[in-house]
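Schema walkthrough. Field components (list of strings):
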Amino acid sequence: MENLSKELIGASSIPIILSILSKNESYGYEIIQRIKELSEGKINYADGTLYPVLHKLEKKELIEAYWKVAETGRRRKYYRIKSKGKKELAREQENWITINTIISKLWNIEPRLT
Amino acid sequence: MEHRTTFNVKDSLNLTTFSLEDSLNLWKKELAKSSVMTTENIEELESHLRDEMDELTLTGLSLEEAFIIAKKRIGSTNTLTREFYKVNRKYHLKSKLMPYLQGILLLLVFQSAQNIIQSVSALVGSYFDMSAYYISYISPGIELLLLVSGLLFFFRGNKYKKLSILKSTPLLISFVLLIKISEFALGVNASRLVNPRTFGLLRYNHIILDLLLLSLLLAISGHLFYSIRKNNTKQFQNG
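Field assembly_structure (string):
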């Protein structure tokens, strides 16, 4: 099972995080577990590096954060998507669909490129 | 892995007990060292680490094993520092600048205090009809006395308590403002009431004191510079 390239992971991290948060508010650890589960381990990076990405999205006002006492009794920082984030997600979806269409068209002509 | 090992009579056979709190504190200190992460950032990472450890201990791992694996998964201090720097650049710059700014504020306080001593000595001396010659020695004398007692107070007493007063920037700023205002008010009065010759003599002796202080400061700086460099070269030699 080959891991995805760093560049591709970097480019896709924002739409992936926004998509996860558009379903439900969540916290860092849970978001990472979800990404690992969805990618079947193909997206693999140091878990802690997700947080700077979350903070960047927070600064851009795409998501908002708040501290809450979790069921474990510990304080935990939760994130939820804002309306600006939903718009950004819609734009990202369009972009990715466009790329997907282009690549599909190209590879349908010559399906077994490798 | 660095963590404090304690020996317990019950756990014979040299079993070391793992202290989670000690290890966590050490880890957090390491993260805070580079002043790239805020305390909130570190709290969030700690909450993540504890969540991960909860999951790992459920699979039957010991607390220590869970800590080691969770720490590895969250990423090395270098990786985390590098990634957090990308979003915390401003915070990093500010926290690095702060000590310099405090140094400048302290210097301002020192300068103003010096001017206040001069004005007060000249005013009080003139009021009692003292000769300019005496006044010009009393004023730097008072400054020297205050400096020495200040240094003694600083090194003798509870160091950390006194340092924390200096570290409170709002307090320092209000102090600078207060002392600057009194410096101005006293200076205006002194220049109006005191004979210029007295001031001239007084300034002269203060300049000599300044030069003495400057050479002392230069000597200390030079000594520190070379002793730090010596320590660094030693470290390299040791590998």
